Amino acid sequence: MTLENDTEVGSIIGSNSHIDYVGEIYTETMRESPPEPTDFEFGQFVYVLKEVQGQQRAFIGIIYDTQLVDPDQGRSGPRLAQPDEQNIFQPSYVDEKQVLTGIALLGYAEVEDGELVNPEHSIPRWTLEIDDVVRKLSEEDVIRFHEVDEEVRLEYYQRIVDVAGGFAEDILSQVLTELKEEKPGEADALDVIQKNLEWQTKMGGVE
Amino acid sequence: MVVGIVSEPGEGSNEFVIVTPDDTEIKTGEFVYYTSDVEVRNDDGEIEEQEKKIFARVTGREQQRGFPDQFMADPGVSPNAVARKLGISTDGVDLYNITATVIGYYDEQLNDFTNPRIVPEPGTEISLASDSDLEDYLTEAEPEEGSAFIGDLIHRPPERTKIHLPIDAFTSTHLSVLASTGSGKSYTASVLVEEMMQPDSRAAILVLDPHGEYGSLDDMEEEELSDKFRGDDGYSPEVQIKRPDDIQIRISELSLGDLFSIIDDPSDPQEQVLAEAWNQLQSEEDDYISINNIQDKVEEVGEEKDLESSARALDWRIDKALDRDLFDHSNHLSLPELLEPGQCTVLQLDTMDLRDQQMLVSVLFRKINQERVAHEKDRESELEFPVFGLLEEGHRFAPADGDARSLPVLSTILSEGRKFGVGIGIISQRPSKIDDDVLSQCKTQIIMQIQNPLDQDAVKKGVEDVGEDLLSELPGLTPGQAIIAGDSVNTPFLTRIRERHTEHEAESLEATKRWQQNWKEQQRGPEGVAEPEDEEGAENRDQPLD
């Protein structure tokens, strides 16, 4: 399976910072087969394929937030068309309903023969662009992205905490749980990180 | 090599704090230096500024930055592994604050350290003192020139910084080796003896050995060790081991005080009679006084003074006190036989009771002192060379409660001996039981592991120039490690005592092995005795008699 076959979940429509992007999830009007809700769930790893300096790279991020946008909301005036016919007479009301996602950029990897190689967890120097297609990263590739120098790493840890704020614990916990299952040999060390994370977030709320 | 940077002055007036990235090089007790300009007097007597290395001793280490405790939540997972997973570099994470105390720069004219009385400025580079600087500056001794190679610095790799003690210094200003049992005090003392018997010093040593631990010093005479002890001019050390049976005191060598101390509870008139009789006998200048001589003289004096009953009462007391193997009217340990340059005499006192040991030390050292004083005053003397006496179990001979015949003579020698060439080495595991004055007169100290708080206090009181930081190391020292301080060294330091050339005898008995051996021997039983069942005719034993 190569990266190109992964589900396209949306496109980049803006950013809040170099590592904090906003994506719009494809709807029925944009794609024949729009993504399923499980394709853009909270904590889903996604990527954008780009060629930089002649090298195909995957910019890998994670969905840390979602926002629903309905321009029709709060308009109480009369409609010319019946609801069933709105698609035809006022398509914008339908089009403009959006699911926006916050994507935190975690790192990047080179792509060779459709495979992720040399994953890096540092901030990429290059930016994503508007309309870049966001794809769902398969579970297999999630694991591959975390294998740096032959061991599991989450060097982006602090960046998620900074970008995702209060949601960081849940996202990281989810990632850690999955990594622990997939890499039982490194579960102990990951467990130390996970417990520390839980303690800090949860105790931070109590204290 | 720069190992750290000064960050701020410390709490004490001579202290400063260094920040260093790792702890591998700088251990507590280590020596570091920085360079600074100081005003010194040059050879022409003019004052000029010179750049000097100013040495300091590391007294403490605190971690300033390191991994958080949370990284150590699982004992099976190293904090490094956790940090790596989070993308935190694991190199150079630890930052240490090192506290150091300024010792000073080495003043070639004083042959000692001089404290510049100012701590370095923040930002000053701190380097590790080189081995050769330390060898040159810690003590004033040159190898092979009347020096004792005692070991090496503890915080450096073995044999990197060799420590030589000047034998002249510690034999004239006295020495103490203080350590709890099993931490190697007799081992250390033996190393010193070995060094003093080498061709470059050829000492005259007398070892008082109440436990019989120093017998193996006679290995020095062995052919196998000839490369260590033989001199090019044919010198070879002699070792004499004297067993308790060989040790006797000639009665005429006792002082009146000695006599009083061994005579059982004499009354005043008895003392008067004995004093008179003894003085008369002494004035006759007879080297040989027997018990009978004393008894006859006492009787004579008793009659003269009309104190016959006291004289009679003294009669059996004298018998009781002197009629023992230790005292003899003619045999004695003659000083020329005991003491000679290049000779080490070990007096093994293991079966002698405590009072006899004290009496022996008292008589022997009084005589040594007298002969040495006579020599220095240009009178006829049996000892024309300095001598060094090593007293194992020193608290027996100079106890804090003062109850020992030997204390006064030892006190005299320790306070005046340096003038007359009598050096004393006190070895003890109970410094708190040694007389304070005696302890403080031993100007060179080798202190090893001491756990008893009373003894630690005694060491603190008796040893002036060892800082708190070094003394706090005392309970944690392992056998063979010692703090050396005092007049023979320029600043106190931690040493690893070198290995002995001769065999060490004072190991504890291997009880379990001995028990097994004895049990087996008993099981074998005496030969020729058969079990009752195995005896001939045993089967008929229970037959009724017809």
From TrEMBL, chain A:
Occurrences of domain DUF8166 (ranges): 4-206
Protein name: DUF8166 domain-containing protein
Automatic annotation (TrEMBL), chain B:
Helicase HerA central domain location: 150-368
Biased composition (Basic and acidic residues): 502-513
Catalytic activity from the UniProt record: ATP + H2O = ADP + phosphate + H(+); Couples ATP hydrolysis with the unwinding of duplex DNA by translocating in the 3'-5' direction
Record-annotated membrane-spanning stretches: none
Region described as Disordered: spans on this chain: 502-546
InterPro entries, alphabetized: HerA-like (IPR008571), HerA_central (IPR002789), P-loop_NTPase (IPR027417)
A single GO molecular function term of this UniProt record: 5'-3' DNA helicase activity
Similarity comment: Belongs to the HerA family.
Listed name of the protein: Helicase HerA central domain-containing protein
